[in-house]
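Hello,

I think I submitted the zinc ion job twice by accident. Can you confirm which output corresponds to this input? Input:
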Amino acid sequence: MTSLLVKNTTLLVTMDADRREIPDGGLFIQGGFIRQVGLTAELPQEADETLDLQGCILLPGLINTHHHFYQTLTRAVPAAQDANLFNWLKTLYPIWACMRPEDIRISSQTALAELALSGCTTASDHLYLFPNGSSLDDEIQAAQELGVRLHASRGSMSLGESKGGLPPDSVVESEDFILKDSQRLIEQYHDPNPGAMVQIVLAPCSPFSVTGELMRQSASLAREYGVQLHTHLAETKDEEVFCQQLFGHRPVAYMELLNWIGPDVWFAHSVHVNQDEMRLYSQTGCGVAHCPSSNMRLASGIAPVMDMLRLGVKVGLGVDGSASNDGSHLLGEARQAMLVARVRAGLEGASLSNESAPPLMTARQALEIATLGSASVLGRADLGSLEPGKCADFIAIRLDRLGYAGALHDPVAALVFCAPVQADFTIVGGKFVVKDGQLVTLDLPRLVEQHNRAAKRLLGNW
Ligand SMILES: [Zn+2]
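Support: Only one job matched these inputs. Its output is below.
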């Protein structure tokens, strides 16, 4: 087994049960898993490879719990810049309908490259459009080439405009095919073991784009195979009204009816949930992918994340699709989570001079959501912290940079309070994805050129 010794970090953030932060810390890694964590002086001194991280802070790799990689092709589209969710979708659906398999592959590489450079080691993606022969295989291949762990969600839309749904009929699929393809993908790719590089998730897009029957059947198929379930839920007020009018229930109650509540389910957004609904999440182990930038971009609202944490809800972080963010900077997203939680606290009357006011989200809480929280949302006990037996997924950031000047009395807080930076090292399963600030597994200038060409073609068709 290949071994890697990581030594001499200025500070190593473990996120272990005691939340230890170890000055002059290091890791000893074998076969892609962590064997020892501690002071550099206490680790084995010999390994196949040694990485000296003097001057760096090291922390667990960040984990993204919600994305739509393909949307990197449609960032900042003029007609969708200032629209709310439903109008934004109606503008973009016809453009997305022109995508081809190579567009899925290129856009997945772009999103994953951006994520990896921002400190992400595991990403979940939700692909729910398969036009012109595209398939989930295209993005799985991209992730395998790049070396980032992927939770690939087989999304779906079956309720077209003619049946009262939101998407045009041209981008929906038959429910029979959706279920058959879901089963094929699970059997071909899903790895349930610790250290898995690819897991499959079943993910009908949202209550307003599939039938209740497809939701039910997806849940029973997922449970037959032990894979997770994911969808968008309670994102906007419009959705709440839509669900009440069409189904006679609020979104969470509708999910309960469809057997879509449990520890194997996580919902993107959950902005518009009440105390009872959050309590239900907590009691049943339902997870939430918090996507603060997207919620601000689409004027959806501010998710009650501090309430969720207080009630013991599993909360992870997501950058969401690049047409509603429009960037995949996961460390930057942790900063957004902290800041917008403070906006909400302010709106609820919290003030720093009021000692009985609820506490503000801290930088360390934001990082915990992006690591431990996201790992628990994805059902990954082998990720999220740096402890013996866990995957060797970590990032390191140099501290002698301009943006951190004057903040080195608390380098952990600097990561979140100061302007978001790129990772100098991103390591997944003991293998380098980013080294000295450069991606090692792909030719970035060539990818950017290919990506811009693909985006121009799509927008040209439109
Ligand atoms: Zn989304």
